[in-house]
Amino acid sequence: MPLQMEGMVVSNERVKSLYYLLGIDCPPIADQIKPGQFVMLKVSDDRSPLLRRPFSVYKGYPFNHPEKRKRGYLFILYKKVGAGTRKMTTLKKGQKVDLIGPLGKGFTPPPLPSSTPPIFIGGGVGIVSLYPLAEALEGKHIFVFIGGRTQDDILCVEDFKKFKSNIFVATEDGSLGVKGTVVDLFLSQRKIFKKNEAYYLYACGPVAMLKALAGSVQSKTFICQASLEARMGCGFGACWGCVVKTNHPQTAYQRVCEDGPVFRLKDIVWE
Ligand SMILES: Cc1cc2nc3c(=O)[nH]c(=O)nc-3n(C[C@H](O)[C@H](O)[C@H](O)COP(=O)(O)OP(=O)(O)OC[C@H]3O[C@@H](n4cnc5c(N)ncnc54)[C@H](O)[C@@H]3O)c2cc1C
Ligand code: FES
Q: Which of 41, 85, 120, 168 is 20 to 30 A away from residue 57, measured at CA?
Protein backbone atom coordinates (compact mmCIF):
# COMPACT_ATOMS: atom_id res chain seq x y z
CA MET A 1 0.00 0.00 0.00
CA PRO A 2 1.65 3.30 -1.07
CA LEU A 3 2.18 5.89 1.65
CA GLN A 4 2.63 9.63 1.43
CA MET A 5 5.32 10.47 3.95
CA GLU A 6 7.80 13.05 5.02
CA GLY A 7 11.36 11.72 5.06
CA MET A 8 14.58 13.36 6.22
CA VAL A 9 17.60 13.76 4.01
CA VAL A 10 20.56 11.96 5.57
CA SER A 11 23.04 12.51 2.73
CA ASN A 12 23.18 13.92 -0.80
CA GLU A 13 26.53 13.53 -2.50
CA ARG A 14 27.90 13.68 -6.01
CA VAL A 15 29.06 10.20 -7.04
CA LYS A 16 30.57 11.15 -10.39
CA SER A 17 29.97 13.60 -13.25
CA LEU A 18 26.18 14.18 -13.33
CA TYR A 19 25.26 11.41 -10.85
CA TYR A 20 24.30 11.90 -7.19
CA LEU A 21 23.32 9.64 -4.31
CA LEU A 22 20.48 10.82 -2.09
CA GLY A 23 19.82 9.09 1.23
CA ILE A 24 16.45 9.56 2.96
CA ASP A 25 15.40 8.37 6.41
CA CYS A 26 11.88 7.08 5.86
CA PRO A 27 11.35 3.76 7.68
CA PRO A 28 7.72 3.03 6.63
CA ILE A 29 8.61 3.15 2.91
CA ALA A 30 12.09 1.62 3.26
CA ASP A 31 10.53 -1.30 5.09
CA GLN A 32 8.05 -2.12 2.32
CA ILE A 33 9.98 -1.50 -0.88
CA LYS A 34 10.45 -4.45 -3.30
CA PRO A 35 13.00 -4.74 -6.14
CA GLY A 36 11.93 -2.63 -9.14
CA GLN A 37 9.46 -0.43 -7.26
CA PHE A 38 9.83 3.33 -7.18
CA VAL A 39 8.93 6.47 -5.23
CA MET A 40 7.55 9.83 -6.35
CA LEU A 41 9.63 12.56 -4.76
CA LYS A 42 8.71 16.21 -4.31
CA VAL A 43 12.05 17.76 -5.11
CA SER A 44 11.39 21.27 -3.76
CA ASP A 45 9.16 23.12 -1.32
CA ASP A 46 8.12 25.74 -3.85
CA ARG A 47 5.93 25.20 -6.91
CA SER A 48 8.77 24.74 -9.33
CA PRO A 49 8.70 22.02 -10.46
CA LEU A 50 5.13 21.36 -9.39
CA LEU A 51 5.05 17.65 -10.13
CA ARG A 52 6.85 14.97 -8.18
CA ARG A 53 9.55 13.02 -9.97
CA PRO A 54 9.77 9.20 -10.16
CA PHE A 55 12.91 7.41 -8.91
CA SER A 56 13.73 3.75 -8.43
CA VAL A 57 14.89 2.81 -5.00
CA TYR A 58 18.51 1.79 -5.38
CA LYS A 59 19.04 0.56 -1.82
CA GLY A 60 16.47 0.19 0.93
CA TYR A 61 17.26 -0.85 4.50
CA PRO A 62 14.28 -2.28 6.42
CA PHE A 63 13.71 -2.11 10.19
CA ASN A 64 15.41 -5.45 10.77
CA HIS A 65 18.52 -4.73 8.67
CA PRO A 66 21.72 -5.88 10.43
CA GLU A 67 23.41 -2.48 9.91
CA LYS A 68 21.66 -0.56 12.68
CA ARG A 69 22.71 2.92 11.59
CA LYS A 70 21.11 2.47 8.15
CA ARG A 71 17.80 0.99 9.29
CA GLY A 72 14.87 2.76 7.65
CA TYR A 73 17.02 4.53 5.06
CA LEU A 74 16.44 4.44 1.34
CA PHE A 75 18.85 5.60 -1.33
CA ILE A 76 18.20 7.08 -4.76
CA LEU A 77 20.97 7.24 -7.34
CA TYR A 78 20.01 10.01 -9.76
CA LYS A 79 21.28 11.84 -12.80
CA LYS A 80 21.01 15.61 -13.05
CA VAL A 81 19.08 16.09 -16.31
CA GLY A 82 16.68 19.02 -15.83
CA ALA A 83 15.05 21.48 -13.46
CA GLY A 84 13.83 18.92 -10.90
CA THR A 85 16.99 16.90 -10.55
CA ARG A 86 19.01 20.15 -10.48
CA LYS A 87 16.96 21.19 -7.42
CA MET A 88 17.54 17.76 -5.89
CA THR A 89 21.26 18.37 -5.88
CA THR A 90 20.70 21.27 -3.45
CA LEU A 91 18.90 19.15 -0.83
CA LYS A 92 20.78 19.31 2.47
CA LYS A 93 21.22 16.86 5.34
CA GLY A 94 18.39 17.31 7.84
CA GLN A 95 15.97 18.78 5.26
CA LYS A 96 12.48 17.26 5.05
CA VAL A 97 11.26 15.80 1.74
CA ASP A 98 7.83 14.59 0.79
CA LEU A 99 7.58 11.24 -0.99
CA ILE A 100 5.01 8.66 -2.06
CA GLY A 101 5.86 4.99 -2.21
CA PRO A 102 6.36 2.15 -2.70
CA LEU A 103 4.81 2.46 -6.16
CA GLY A 104 4.35 0.13 -9.13
CA LYS A 105 4.86 -3.53 -9.76
CA GLY A 106 8.46 -4.61 -9.44
CA PHE A 107 10.42 -7.56 -10.79
CA THR A 108 9.30 -11.15 -10.36
CA PRO A 109 12.33 -13.21 -9.32
CA PRO A 110 13.15 -16.38 -11.29
CA PRO A 111 11.07 -19.38 -10.20
CA LEU A 112 12.76 -21.77 -7.80
CA PRO A 113 14.54 -24.02 -8.44
CA SER A 114 15.97 -22.35 -11.52
CA SER A 115 19.18 -23.85 -12.78
CA THR A 116 20.21 -21.06 -15.15
CA PRO A 117 21.89 -17.84 -13.96
CA PRO A 118 19.72 -14.69 -14.18
CA ILE A 119 20.91 -12.04 -16.62
CA PHE A 120 20.82 -8.30 -15.92
CA ILE A 121 21.10 -5.68 -18.66
CA GLY A 122 21.22 -2.02 -17.63
CA GLY A 123 21.66 1.08 -19.74
CA GLY A 124 22.82 4.29 -18.03
CA VAL A 125 21.01 5.01 -14.78
CA GLY A 126 18.65 2.08 -15.57
CA ILE A 127 21.10 -0.29 -13.88
CA VAL A 128 20.02 1.22 -10.54
CA SER A 129 16.60 -0.44 -10.61
CA LEU A 130 18.21 -3.87 -11.19
CA TYR A 131 20.54 -3.73 -8.19
CA PRO A 132 17.92 -4.55 -5.49
CA LEU A 133 16.89 -7.68 -7.40
CA ALA A 134 20.51 -8.85 -7.61
CA GLU A 135 20.78 -8.22 -3.88
CA ALA A 136 17.62 -10.23 -3.22
CA LEU A 137 19.09 -13.14 -5.21
CA GLU A 138 22.34 -13.02 -3.27
CA GLY A 139 24.23 -16.27 -3.50
CA LYS A 140 23.04 -16.92 -7.04
CA HIS A 141 25.48 -16.59 -9.90
CA ILE A 142 24.43 -13.73 -12.21
CA PHE A 143 25.49 -12.23 -15.52
CA VAL A 144 25.51 -8.44 -15.61
CA PHE A 145 25.77 -6.27 -18.72
CA ILE A 146 26.22 -2.55 -18.02
CA GLY A 147 26.24 0.10 -20.73
CA GLY A 148 26.36 3.85 -21.16
CA ARG A 149 27.40 6.59 -23.55
CA THR A 150 30.79 7.14 -21.89
CA GLN A 151 32.69 5.83 -18.87
CA ASP A 152 30.97 8.50 -16.75
CA ASP A 153 27.65 6.74 -17.36
CA ILE A 154 28.84 3.35 -16.11
CA LEU A 155 27.38 2.84 -12.66
CA CYS A 156 27.22 0.18 -9.93
CA VAL A 157 30.08 -2.04 -11.18
CA GLU A 158 31.56 -2.26 -7.69
CA ASP A 159 28.13 -3.10 -6.26
CA PHE A 160 27.66 -6.05 -8.60
CA LYS A 161 31.19 -7.29 -7.87
CA LYS A 162 29.95 -8.17 -4.36
CA PHE A 163 27.88 -10.96 -5.87
CA LYS A 164 28.94 -14.12 -7.71
CA SER A 165 28.86 -12.35 -11.04
CA ASN A 166 30.29 -12.09 -14.52
CA ILE A 167 30.27 -8.39 -15.39
CA PHE A 168 30.51 -7.00 -18.93
CA VAL A 169 30.80 -3.29 -19.72
CA ALA A 170 30.16 -1.40 -22.97
CA THR A 171 30.40 2.29 -23.79
CA GLU A 172 29.27 3.89 -27.02
CA ASP A 173 32.47 5.95 -27.27
CA GLY A 174 34.74 3.06 -26.22
CA SER A 175 36.07 4.94 -23.17
CA LEU A 176 35.45 1.89 -20.94
CA GLY A 177 34.91 -1.77 -21.77
CA VAL A 178 33.85 -2.77 -25.26
CA LYS A 179 32.93 -0.08 -27.76
CA GLY A 180 29.23 -0.23 -28.72
CA THR A 181 25.86 -0.58 -27.08
CA VAL A 182 25.13 -2.86 -24.18
CA VAL A 183 22.68 -4.84 -26.31
CA ASP A 184 25.37 -5.45 -28.95
CA LEU A 185 27.68 -6.61 -26.18
CA PHE A 186 25.06 -9.00 -24.82
CA LEU A 187 24.38 -10.39 -28.30
CA SER A 188 28.12 -10.90 -28.86
CA GLN A 189 28.21 -13.07 -25.71
CA ARG A 190 25.04 -15.00 -26.51
CA LYS A 191 27.03 -18.18 -27.14
CA ILE A 192 27.54 -18.48 -23.36
CA PHE A 193 23.84 -19.25 -23.02
CA LYS A 194 22.48 -22.61 -24.17
CA LYS A 195 19.69 -22.44 -26.75
CA ASN A 196 17.66 -25.24 -25.21
CA GLU A 197 17.59 -23.68 -21.72
CA ALA A 198 15.40 -20.85 -20.42
CA TYR A 199 17.13 -17.79 -18.94
CA TYR A 200 15.45 -15.06 -16.90
CA LEU A 201 16.60 -11.71 -18.18
CA TYR A 202 15.99 -8.38 -16.41
CA ALA A 203 16.49 -5.12 -18.26
CA CYS A 204 16.18 -1.40 -17.62
CA GLY A 205 17.36 1.49 -19.74
CA PRO A 206 16.38 3.94 -22.45
CA VAL A 207 13.59 3.06 -24.90
CA ALA A 208 16.08 2.55 -27.76
CA MET A 209 17.94 -0.06 -25.70
CA LEU A 210 14.81 -1.98 -24.73
CA LYS A 211 13.49 -1.83 -28.29
CA ALA A 212 16.77 -3.22 -29.64
CA LEU A 213 16.69 -5.98 -27.04
CA ALA A 214 13.07 -6.87 -27.86
CA GLY A 215 13.97 -7.09 -31.54
CA SER A 216 16.92 -9.39 -31.05
CA VAL A 217 16.19 -11.98 -28.36
CA GLN A 218 14.24 -15.20 -28.71
CA SER A 219 11.56 -15.12 -26.05
CA LYS A 220 11.75 -18.92 -25.60
CA THR A 221 15.40 -18.80 -24.52
CA PHE A 222 15.29 -15.41 -22.79
CA ILE A 223 12.26 -14.68 -20.62
CA CYS A 224 12.61 -10.93 -20.32
CA GLN A 225 11.17 -8.48 -17.84
CA ALA A 226 11.86 -4.83 -18.53
CA SER A 227 11.41 -1.78 -16.35
CA LEU A 228 10.15 1.12 -18.46
CA GLU A 229 10.69 4.81 -17.96
CA ALA A 230 7.96 7.33 -18.77
CA ARG A 231 7.15 10.93 -17.93
CA MET A 232 4.79 10.70 -14.97
CA GLY A 233 2.13 13.07 -13.68
CA CYS A 234 0.77 11.37 -10.56
CA GLY A 235 2.72 8.08 -10.29
CA PHE A 236 -0.23 6.10 -8.90
CA GLY A 237 -2.59 5.41 -11.80
CA ALA A 238 -4.89 8.45 -11.77
CA CYS A 239 -3.86 10.68 -14.70
CA TRP A 240 -3.12 8.16 -17.51
CA GLY A 241 -0.18 10.36 -18.48
CA CYS A 242 2.30 7.50 -18.64
CA VAL A 243 0.67 4.91 -20.90
CA VAL A 244 2.51 2.42 -23.06
CA LYS A 245 0.99 0.31 -25.85
CA THR A 246 0.92 -3.43 -25.17
CA ASN A 247 -0.53 -6.49 -26.87
CA HIS A 248 -2.93 -7.03 -23.95
CA PRO A 249 -6.22 -8.27 -25.56
CA GLN A 250 -8.54 -6.05 -23.47
CA THR A 251 -6.44 -3.09 -22.31
CA ALA A 252 -3.89 -2.24 -24.99
CA TYR A 253 -2.76 0.92 -23.21
CA GLN A 254 -1.29 0.20 -19.80
CA ARG A 255 -0.04 2.66 -17.21
CA VAL A 256 3.69 2.45 -16.60
CA CYS A 257 3.26 3.67 -13.01
CA GLU A 258 0.48 1.31 -11.92
CA ASP A 259 0.57 -1.69 -14.30
CA GLY A 260 4.38 -1.47 -14.50
CA PRO A 261 7.01 -0.12 -14.47
CA VAL A 262 8.06 -3.76 -14.98
CA PHE A 263 6.45 -5.51 -17.97
CA ARG A 264 7.17 -8.66 -19.94
CA LEU A 265 9.31 -7.31 -22.76
CA LYS A 266 7.41 -9.35 -25.36
CA ASP A 267 4.13 -7.62 -24.33
CA ILE A 268 5.29 -4.12 -25.29
CA VAL A 269 4.27 -2.75 -28.70
CA TRP A 270 7.06 -0.42 -29.80
CA GLU A 271 5.67 2.51 -31.81
C1 LIG B 1 9.85 4.32 -12.76
C2 LIG B 1 10.97 5.31 -12.99
C3 LIG B 1 12.14 5.19 -12.27
C4 LIG B 1 13.18 6.10 -12.48
N5 LIG B 1 14.31 5.95 -11.75
C6 LIG B 1 15.32 6.83 -11.89
C7 LIG B 1 16.52 6.68 -11.12
O8 LIG B 1 16.66 5.77 -10.29
N9 LIG B 1 17.50 7.61 -11.31
C10 LIG B 1 17.37 8.64 -12.22
O11 LIG B 1 18.29 9.44 -12.36
N12 LIG B 1 16.26 8.78 -12.96
C13 LIG B 1 15.23 7.91 -12.83
N14 LIG B 1 14.09 8.08 -13.56
C15 LIG B 1 14.00 9.22 -14.49
C16 LIG B 1 13.69 10.48 -13.66
O17 LIG B 1 12.37 10.40 -13.17
C18 LIG B 1 13.83 11.73 -14.55
O19 LIG B 1 15.17 11.87 -14.95
C20 LIG B 1 13.39 12.97 -13.79
O21 LIG B 1 11.99 12.93 -13.60
C22 LIG B 1 13.78 14.21 -14.57
O23 LIG B 1 13.29 15.33 -13.88
P24 LIG B 1 13.86 16.78 -14.20
O25 LIG B 1 12.89 17.76 -13.67
O26 LIG B 1 15.27 16.91 -13.74
O27 LIG B 1 13.91 16.81 -15.77
P28 LIG B 1 12.91 17.51 -16.78
O29 LIG B 1 13.26 18.96 -16.81
O30 LIG B 1 11.50 17.12 -16.48
O31 LIG B 1 13.39 16.80 -18.12
C32 LIG B 1 14.75 16.88 -18.55
C33 LIG B 1 15.04 15.80 -19.57
O34 LIG B 1 14.86 14.49 -19.01
C35 LIG B 1 13.90 13.75 -19.74
N36 LIG B 1 13.05 13.02 -18.80
C37 LIG B 1 12.33 13.54 -17.80
N38 LIG B 1 11.65 12.59 -17.14
C39 LIG B 1 11.94 11.43 -17.74
C40 LIG B 1 11.55 10.09 -17.52
N41 LIG B 1 10.70 9.74 -16.58
N42 LIG B 1 12.06 9.15 -18.35
C43 LIG B 1 12.91 9.48 -19.31
N44 LIG B 1 13.33 10.74 -19.57
C45 LIG B 1 12.84 11.70 -18.80
C46 LIG B 1 13.10 14.78 -20.50
O47 LIG B 1 12.56 14.26 -21.70
C48 LIG B 1 14.11 15.84 -20.78
O49 LIG B 1 14.89 15.52 -21.91
C50 LIG B 1 13.04 7.17 -13.41
C51 LIG B 1 11.84 7.29 -14.13
C52 LIG B 1 10.83 6.38 -13.92
C53 LIG B 1 9.55 6.51 -14.69
S1 FES C 1 1.60 8.89 -13.97
FE2 FES C 1 -0.53 9.22 -13.64
S3 FES C 1 -1.37 7.35 -14.37
FE4 FES C 1 0.74 7.00 -14.49
A: 168
